[in-house]
Structure formats: C-alpha cells, structure tokens
Amino acid sequence: MKNKINFKTSDLGKMDKQTAVHLINSLGGFKSVALVGTSDGQGNTNLSIFSSFFHIGANPPLIGMIFRPSPPERDTMRNILDTRFYTINHINEKIYKQAHQTSARYNKEISEFDAAGLSAEYKNNFPAPFVLESNIQLGIEFKEKTDISINNTTMIIGEIVQVFIPEDCLSEDGFVNLEKANTVTCSGLDSYHKTVQLDRLSYAKANKEITSILKS
Question: Are the C-beta atoms of residues 149 and 128 closer than 8 Å to each other?
Fold first, then answer.
C-alpha cells in the first residue's frame, strides 16, 4: 500500500468544490442506500434516493434519515410531514441505475417513478407507495423531526410498521440476508457496490472466544 496523504480541514477550501464534496462524502465508508417513496394529499407520487439512513432502536423499531438544507424545497420531506407515511425500498443490482436517476431535479408534477421507469405499488392499505422492483420494502410512520443548526440539515425519525422480505432471505433467528436479497450499498455520492459476507460472529462476552455462527 502506498504512503498515506494527509489532509487538513484548511486544505478543503483550496480544492475544487466538487472534489472536496466527493472526498468528504467518501470518508464515511460504505453506506445504506435506498429509495424513499411518498405521495402528497392528492395522491401524486414522489421517489427519491437517499444514503443517509441509520438504525436508532429495535423496540420500538426506529430508523432515521438526514435531509440536506432547504431551499430548494424537498418534496419528500414535505410529503412525509403532510401525510406522516413513507416507504424505504432497498436497491438491487437490477435497478441501481434507475434509482440513481431519481436524484435528478424534476418538476413537482412529474413522478420520479415514471421518470426512472420504476413501478409504484400500494398494498396492505398502506398510504405511501412501495417500489415494486425492490426486494426488501419497509413501510414507515413519521414520528419526529429535529432541525440540526450546525449545517442546516433535518433529521427525520420514523417507526417501521410494515416489512416485506423474500421468504428465503429471512433466517430462523431473524437475521436478514441482504446478499440473497441482492441489496447493494454505496460510497460517496455515485458509487454503487455489491457485498460479500465474511462471517457472522457469536455475541461478544468477556473471557469467551469469538466463534463463527454461519451455517455450512
């Protein structure tokens, strides 16, 4: 491996703006990336790609996401606050290009489902649209909004109230096999990746050896 380059915060201001953005966005490592489906009060659908999800808790099952500064006004966040429901849909190898296309800015009258060639799916009387082509789909109910003043972003917290997972991707102990579901991950703003599982390890305890729990 080659010698490491040292960057300081003061160096970022000397870089091309887009270069600095790519650098900082890549430093966090691999991230969850998914499509967020919403609709407004008139039933107009919206679909947008996000890579700012994070687990908050299992009981109740909470998931958070970060919205970048507005303006421009974010249709996704407005729809979430107005209707209180949205979906999170895993991206797979077959749809990652269409998913990326949803990051383009479209007029409010244009649905990103249509623009990207993806299908809105309504089921179980859930009010927000799922992505039909997604293998793992989550129905979320809005719970809390927090404004983060340091960089003018907003954190939205929702509770998972609906889950759709392929039967062969769910283990007996509740573990979800994301590789079987063909879920992809991302780094930076535009790099998409497949994953390879290294292992599943036993619960860590003091004075007890870590062992593999993968079934052969």
Answer: no
Place of tokens 């809390």: 144
Residue range 129-134: mean pLDDT, rounded: 98
Rounded CA separation 8/2 (Å):
19
Judged by phi (left if over 0) then psi (alpha if -120 to 50, else beta), residue 185 lies in beta
| Neighbour tally for 94: CB within 10 Å | 13
If residue 12 lies in a helix (H) or strand (E), which one and from where to where? helix 9-12
Quick one: which H or E segment has residue 88? strand 85-90
The answer to whether the peptide bond before residue 127 is cis (omega within 30 degrees of 0) is no
Q: Region of 213 please: left (phi>0), alpha (psi -120 to 50) or beta.
A: alpha
Q: What is the pLDDT of residues 57-94, one digit of tens each?
A: 999 999 999 998 866 667 899 999 999 999 999 999 99
CA nearest to 63, candidates 129, 162, 152? 162
- Number of Cβ within a 10 Å radius of residue 111: 18
Averaged pLDDT, 16-21: 85
Q: What is the mean pLDDT of residues 113-130?
A: 97
* Model-wide pTM > 0.70: yes
Q: Distance between CA 52 and CA 207 in Å, rounded?
A: 36
> Quick one: tokens of 95?
């749809």
Q: What is the pLDDT of residue 216?
A: 47
In degrees and rounded to multiples of 5, residue 55 shows phi and psi of -75, 135
